[in-house]
Write a structure and sequence with these properties.
alpha/beta; 3-stranded antiparallel sheet; 129 residues; 3-stranded parallel sheet; binds NADP nicotinamide-adenine-dinucleotide phosphate
């Protein structure tokens, strides 16, 4: 499941990176799904709890969610159990905060951190209940 802005970004990559995997694009406005070039892309909108219920009813119980604003919405609703955060070795001068403002602190339990030759550092966390 990806937000509309992430979808638009992915389209600029040229080749569709998700193959035939089912992908849900979240947007409250019409989205050009044909541009993905595969039939496995669909659109949904609404409160995160309703989206998760609808997807569960269709057999999707394990969801991967991407897009900053999109992740924030699901975090606020308490629907994220695992976070994988990858840091690139750049101090950005300006930009958009990754998680924005949350109604309360969300405690994380560190599971593992991997690092790569390129300088990428990837940490995995469980979200405390
Ligand atoms: N570096 C990375 O790993 C990474 C990963 C993801 C994204 N990005 C980039 O970060 C930038 C900022 O992304 P973002 O946080 O603004 O994007 P985003 O989360 O991908 O997209 C936000 C949009 O998703 C839609 N949306 C989210 N939740 C919804 C819901 N429950 N119901 C209906 N629509 C919903 C809304 O679209 P509408 O406005 O159309 O209603 C919202 O404006 C993008 O340029 C993206 O490419 C980077």
């Amino acid at each position: 499941m990806i937000g509309r802005k992430t979808y638009e970004k992915v389209l600029t990559f040229g080749a569709w990176p998700y193959g035939e995997k089912r992908v849900v694009v979240l947007s409250s406005r019409p989205v050009d799904l044909v541009a993905a070039g595969v039939r496995t892309v669909e659109q949904m909108a609404g409160p995160p709890t309703e989206i998760v219920s609808q997807l569960a009813a269709s057999g999707a119980h394990h969801l991967y969610i991407d897009g900053g604003i999109t992740i924030q919405g699901f975090l606020r609703a308490g629907l994220i159990q695992r976070l994988i955060i990858t840091r690139v070795p750049v101090l950005i001068g300006d930009g958009v905060p990754l998680f924005g403002t949350l109604p309360r602190d969300i405690r994380l339990l560190h599971v593992a951190t991997r690092h790569y030759q390129s300088g990428l550092v990837q940490s995995e966390y469980h979200v405390s209940a």
